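Let's practice the habit of predicting before peeking. Look at the sequence and jot down your guess about where helices and strands might fall. Then scroll down.
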Amino acid sequence: MNPLIAQGLIGGASQLLGIGLNQQGNQQQMAQQQQLMQQQFQNQQALNLQGQQIQQQNWDYTNYGNQVKHMENAGLNVGLMYGMGGGGGQSMGSGGGGSAAGGNAPQNTNPQVMGIMADAALKAAQMDLTKAQADKIRKETPTSGNLGDTGLANTAADTALKNMNTANAKIQNEIGTRSLEDVLTTIKANADKAQSEQRSALVKANIDEKTQKSVEQKIDAEAINEAFKLGVMKSQIKLNDAQINNLAEQVRIGKFNANTNAEYQSLDRVAGNQLLELIGKIKSMFGMQDSNINQIK
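Done guessing? Here is the structure:
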């Protein structure tokens, strides 16, 4: 995955996690607030009941019956109670039991706590990404040969191909003075030299056999394509580069068929025979099967 995209996804996930945690905190705060309100209501009810009981006791204590008893105990004439304007029972207070203290649930909006939680989530996501990238690299890293084998193999192949193409370019400049056999023989010799160079380099680099074979096939394919190009040029067969490349590929993989090949069918009889002769020589020179092609149009 692209690191920038992965970092963006991690950042977005961290923000979403922060929002989710904040919502969860708000829900917890609301639940706590409801519990506190319920507790306050219950406390207020208890205080109201207590106030009513105190009020009843005061009324009973100050009523006429108790006033008469107090005057008699004091040796006073009960009639004085009426002259003094004695009243009936009095209750003290308004009958309320006071007010129960309310409370607020703690706010879950501490930015420091939220920042720590979001940072922890981000680090966890980054660790997962790092592990995934390491696993990917481990799977794609060759387990055979020395470190850097792939780069050494490519360098060896590129160097060998460059040297071979440079040598073949000299043949093209001298094609007017060379025979077809000389042209093909020299191309094959240049290919063999390139194979020897790359093989020596790959063996020193401890490259596995499969990789060596792949490089050899790449050099052979380039050499065969060059043999067709210069062979067609020497024989003055009218084919363009695209036709030559397609023809060379079909011959190289063993899929050439004179009855169906468009490049061959586009030629007249003389040119067709020249092309079949060229194909036979190239296949024989590079050790391909069915080197004798005698299917004449």
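How did you do? DSSP finds ten helices and no strands in the chain.
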